[in-house]
Automatic annotation (TrEMBL):
SMART domains: Molybdop_Fe4S4
Family, similarity comment: Belongs to the prokaryotic molybdopterin-containing oxidoreductase family.
SUPFAM superfamilies: ADC-like (SSF50692), Formate dehydrogenase/DMSO reductase, domains 1-3 (SSF53706)
MF-aspect GO terms: iron-sulfur cluster binding; metal ion binding; molybdopterin cofactor binding; oxidoreductase activity
This protein's name: Molybdopterin-dependent oxidoreductase
Keywords attached to this entry: Iron, Iron-sulfur, Metal-binding, Molybdenum, Oxidoreductase
Length: 693
């Protein structure tokens, strides 16, 4: 008999590392199977729109390659020979290996390593409770937001901006260094509403004519790492042509007179030579921006993923303070709203157990750390034990040569808890199967908008999968770690965290599905003052407040040439921008995503291709002092000659020589506070025939 009843629909939130954090409606076909996934129509930010990769989430949750059972490595590291074991045996072996190493080297030899595979507060951050109680090495979370956030905080002093739904009320939306069509599709929902309802213009500032740029009224195609120069020239024009709001600046900003003087020679001609734009393009954008009161800067992460990224982010954020567009609905600048949530994460993260004497390791420098770099390890022991959840460093971290060498160390014990056989999972000694978000309870917070959301368990865990909370609690018992969080259920942790943070409790939030935490208009627009102690926006940033390594940073917005500039040996600047159908390396196993992305390529301008003697579809060798790899060339004229794009993050196994593009990305920690400069790489490119020299 066919069951014709409509499937039951359950509410959830997208757990992935994406600023949109969409409110979802998920078909529950039975206790072990989901069907279609849609965006919630009645969530005012999601507005019924989600990306294609999550709409077909059943492909991921029910993928035949999902890890289903705990496994022990039986062959050489990385050989792929496994033996299925019980959960008890697996957790016992991990605990035994860690305790042995702790006894020999001290607790800092163990490094719990995680990132944001799920953004759920309990399942993502619970690993820190184990870390703190056990005095394991601390982790500096630099791989994603550090560069952009530092630059934003330097000017405004707080991680928030106007309600992103206000974009629909703007007359000009500037999408700067974020490929929103790929990476946070809901920005486009609100920006295109403004276009439809009020004939607003959309400007995209990006290093290539990506899917977002293709929708724009004006695309400023800049050379990578040169947004500071563009911002300065735009401000030069704003001051020169009477579009700067001096009354606003006098009241709300610090350093505007120095800025005006400093910008005297930062002309569009000057910036054109640096950015690859024409002076006319810069004038056109400056006038459009300066003459539109309701202009909204949507500042992404991408343009800050360079060593000068914080300076460029700060410079871009200055535009709104020069024109005073902050005063208007639909005006101002927004990067991320993380600062509006007043979480008390003591219970989840075990903040009551922190020992400040424990060393901190920089996650972006996992390659140097695992290969024993003394500048990273300090006086502490080598890392001999890793517990990995929610991240795939064998593909996503910089300087993969060192990362791979580190993971291959025989004395390094690695436990990986994963949903799929990633390149990192392949290097595990003990590999544990993880639930997907529909199989566990969690609580989510949006960065690119303003909701907190419930994501209750919808189906039972598949196979023998366990949640991160389950694994952490199971290990804690065996490691002698005591904290009341280890004895609670995920839902109990959610409920208590919500209550102590001043939000609706778990039952209420489950019923409401989400809660809008947006702050009032004046606070969001900094009309009561900016968040520094002098209540001003800082044109002259105090970089020492952002990070200790601030020496040599410019005192005012500028083009700061602290990037890997192209030279005779490395004539190309490479950007590794996100692919549409992947999310970092998540979704690189799902068939539709793979079919759409086809294979790794390097997008190269036809002039450059002709100059080096290659053609569309040919294999080239691309490299620098960190290494080299073979990749297919794709002729693409939507970028400046000298720039190349490798859309990412393709796992190493899809490359001809089985190592991914981050082989060529440096792990050098940028000023002032570290980070990962994924879009700041100088490379040479040669046709394959020459590759053997
Ligand atoms: N070349 C290049 N490299 C980059 C970037 C780039 O733009 N270019 N971007 C960088 C950025 S911004 C980031 S944030 C990093 C992110 O890189 P990763 O942290 O590796 O990214 P994700 O793919 O989001 O998540 C990693 C893993 O978490 C797993 N996972 C998901 N949910 C759970 C769960 O509940 N439990 C467990 N145990 N595992 C789970 C997924 O299966 C996935 O394999 O990559 C960086 N690397
Ligand atoms: N489909 C998909 N969605 C994703 C991800 C993914 O991998 N794939 N990753 C997720 C994660 S972890 C994050 S943090 C967000 C990041 O999302 P975004 O804020 O969009 O940041 P990026 O993805 O790093 O880069 C976006 C754009 O910046 C451009 N860019 C690079 N360098 C420069 C520059 O110097 N100047 C300018 N103006 N532009 C530059 C790139 O060409 C790219 O188009 O996206 C999330 N969403
Ligand atoms: S757009 Fe982002 S938050 Fe929304 S469903 Fe896709 S990955 Fe998830
Ligand atoms: Mo990220």
């Amino acid at each position: 008999m066919t069951n014709t009843a409509a499937p039951e629909i359950r509410a959830s939130a997208c757990p992935h590392d994406c600023p949109s954090t969409c409110a979802l409606e998920i078909e529950r076909l039975n206790s072990r199977q989901i069907g279609r996934v849609r965006g919630a129509e009645n969530n005012s930010y999601t507005a019924g729109v989600i990306c294609a990769k999550v709409a077909r989430y059943a492909e991921r949750t029910h993928h035949p390659d999902r890890l289903m059972h705990p496994m022990r490595r039986i062959g050489e590291k990385g050989s792929g020979a496994w033996q299925q074991i019980s959960w008890d045996d697996a957790l016992d072996e991990v605990a035994e290996a860690f305790l042995k190493r702790e006894a020999q080297y001290g607790s800092e030899t163990i490094w719990p390593y995680y990132y944001a595979g799920t953004m759920g507060l309990v399942q993502r951050d619970g690993i820190n409770r184990l870390r703190h109680v056990k005095k394991y090495s601390e982790q500096k979370l630099t791989i994603c937001t550090t560069l952009a956030r530092g630059g934003w905080m330097a000017g405004t002093g707080s991680l928030h901006g106007p309600d992103p739904r206000e974009m629909a009320k703007s007359d000009l939306v500037v999408i700067w260094g974020t490929n929103a069509v790929h990476t946070q599709v809901n920005v486009m929902t609100h920006a295109t509403r403004a276009r439809k309802d009020r004939s607003a213009k959309i400007v995209v500032i990006d290093t290539y004519r990506n899917a977002t740029a293709q929708t724009a009224d004006l695309h400023l195609c800049v050379n990578p790492g040169t947004d500071g120069a563009l911002a300065c020239a735009v401000m030069h024009v704003l001051f020169k042509e009477g579009m700067a709001d001096r009354a606003y600046m006098e009241k709300f900003t610090k350093g505007w007179k120095e800025l005006e003087a400093h910008l005297q020679d930062k002309t569009p001609d000057w910036a054109a030579a640096i950015t690859g734009l024409t002076p006319e393009e810069i004038y056109a954008f400056a006038r459009l921006y300066g003459q539109t009161k309701k202009s909204f800067l949507r500042l992404g992460y991408g343009f800050a993923r360079s060593q000068n990224g914080p300076v460029n982010m700060h410079a871009a954020s200055c535009l709104a303070a020069v024109t005073g567009s902050w005063q208007y609905e639909g005006g101002g600048a927004m990067h991320n709203n993380g600062g509006i949530y007043h979480w008390d994460k003591t219970l989840i993260e075990g903040l009551d157990a922190i020992d400040p004497a424990i060393r901190t390791l920089d996650m972006s420098r996992i390659g140097p750390v695992l290969t024993g770099d003394k500048t990273d390890l300090g006086d502490g022991p080598p890392v001999t034990g890793l517990l990995i959840q929610n991240t795939n460093p064998m593909d996503v971290a910089p300087e993969l040569g060192k990362v791979h060498a580190g993971f291959a160390r025989d004395d390094l014990f690695v436990c990986v808890h994963e949903q799929f056989m990633t390149e990192t999972a392949k290097m595990a000694d003990i590999l544990l199967p993880a639930t997907t978000f529909v199989e566990h309870d969690d609580l989510y917070q949006a960065g690119g908008q303003s909701h907190i959301m419930m994501g209750p368990k919808i189906i039972d865990p598949l196979g023998e999968c366990r949640s991160n909370h389950g694994v952490i609690s199971g290990l804690a018992k065996r490691l002698g770690a005591e904290h009341r969080g280890f004895d609670m259920t995920a839902m109990e942790m959610i409920d208590e965290t919500l209550k102590v943070s001043g939000w609706p409790d778990a039952e209420t939030l489950t019923e409401k599905k989400w809660h809008d935490c947006m702050i009032d208009f004046d606070s969001a627009h900094y009309l009561n003052g900016f968040a520094h102690s002098d209540r001003k926006f800082h044109f002259t940033p105090d970089w020492s407040k952002i990070g200790a390594d601030y020496e040599g940073m410019p005192a005012l917005p500028d083009h700061w040439e602290a990037i890997f500039v192209a030279d005779a040996e490395h004539p190309f600047r490479m950007v590794t921008a996100p692919a549409r159908n992947f999310l970092n390396t998540s979704f690189t196993a799902t068939p539709t995503s793979l079919k759409r992305e086809k294979r790794p390529t390097v997008k190269i301008h036809s002039q450059d291709a002709a100059a080096i003697g290659t053609e569309d579809g040919a294999i080239v060798r691309i490299g620098n002092r960190l290494g080299s790899l073979l990749i297919h060339a794709e002729i693409f004229d939507g970028l400046n000659p000298g720039t190349v794009i490798v859309e990412s993050v393709w796992p190493g196994k899809f490359f001809i020589e089985k190592v991914g593009i981050n082989l060529l990305v440096s792990a050098k920690a940028p000023k002032p506070n570290g980070g990962a400069a994924f879009h700041d790489t100088a490379v040479w490119i040669r046709p394959e025939a020459d590759a053997s020299d």
